[in-house]
Amino acid sequence: MARDGIADLTYVNPGYQPGRFPIIAAGELPFLIGDVHGGIRAIDSWYRKYAASEMKGVKYCFSFILDPLTWHSKTKKIVVPADIKGMKIRPSQSTVAAWVTSLGGTNVQASATEVRDVMEKGVAEAVNFPWASIPLLGVDKVTKYHMEAPLNTVMFQWLMNPKTYAAMSPAQQKVIDDHCTTEWAARFADPWADWEHAGLEKIKAMPGHEVYKITDEQLADWRKSAEPLHKKWADAVRGAGGDADAIMNELKSSLAQYNASY
After folding, report:
1. Cα(178)–Cα(180) distance, rounded to whole angstroms?
2. Is residue 64 within 8 Å of residue 196, measured between CB atoms?
3. In whole angstroms, what is the distance from residue 262 CA to residue 77 CA?
4. Angle formed by the axes of helices 216-239 and 94-102, to 10°?
5. Residue 44 contacts residue 63 (beta carbons within 8 Å)
6. Helix (H, G, I), strand (E, B) or coil at 78
7. How far is C-alpha 57 from the geometric centre of its chain's CA atoms?
8. Residue 7 CB: number of other CB atoms within 10 A?
9. Which one, of 124, 13, 122, 25, lies nearest residue 72 by Cα?
10. Which residues, other chains included, contact 1 with Cβ-Cβ below 8 Å and sequence gap of 6+?
11. Which residue of 27, 59, 160, 193 has the smallest Cβ count within 10 Å?
């Protein structure tokens, strides 16, 4: 829509379109980003180098991520990877969808605002979601079990139609440019991350909800189950002509710079 001029400015989750943007999908990988505030800065500063080639036809503004997501279930506690087998799950993005499939689950595609409806109807049994969005979107009414473990995050971006930008005066363009920066990615997304994280305590205080931790051994099992996703990401980047090892090393370096590694 941004490319075609249907909208002047768009706010997107690139993970809603599997395989289309293989480089940016690195930010979707589980157990890669450990600190959301540093991660917001690290992701945006890293991706600026690749935005023009991977997202041809749009003017890139900035990227950011959400506070880490986890499993929220209606029917049972999800504790180990084997618990996903046979479950119907609404993933947050395409990498998590691939994870669900690899663990023997079935993906239910729905927008964030449709999650309550699909879970109420039994079309989905669990969702990969951040904390505060659960009560915000009424998903607390259809979930009971919540794993307290940071698993993955979701990428978001602001993108602009280049013709709209080109039609602006130099002074107007400067305003856009001054706000399409890593600093502004952080100013925009830091408060959202804090708000989402605060939802954890809110759900803990709700009657009828069980927020549970997992052991170090169980976490290790989850990390092992996600290892094939990293290879799948690298293969997709190489398939698109990119140097997957170099790109991942740059991302890890950016995460280390901002103290955001998992």
Report:
1. 6
2. no
3. 24
4. 120
5. yes
6. coil
7. 23
8. 14
9. 124
10. 7, 10
11. 160
DSSP SS3 for 160: strand
Cα distance between residue 200 and residue 124, in whole Å: 22
Q: Which residue has the tokens 């370096």?
A: 253
Query: Which amino acid makes up residue 51?
Result: A
The candidate with the shortest Cα–Cα distance to 144, out of 210, 70, 213, is 210
Contacting residues for 177 by C-beta, under 8 A, at least 6 apart: none
> What tens digit of pLDDT does each residue of 60-81 get?
999 999 999 999 999 999 999 9
Amino acid of residue 21: F
Nearest CA to 214 among 25, 23, 83, 39? 83
Exposure letters 13-23 (e unless 16+ CB within 10 A, then b): bbbeeeeebbb
Span 133-155, average pLDDT: 97
Residue 80 backbone phi and psi in degrees, to 5:
-125, 160
H/E segment holding residue 196: helix 182-204
Instruction: Report the amino acid identity of residue 159.
Output: L
Does the pTM surpass 0.90? The reply is yes
Residues sharing a CB contact under 8 Å with residue 144, sequence separation 6 or more, in sequence order: 73, 74, 208, 209, 210
Query: What token pair was written down for 106?
Result: 């079935």
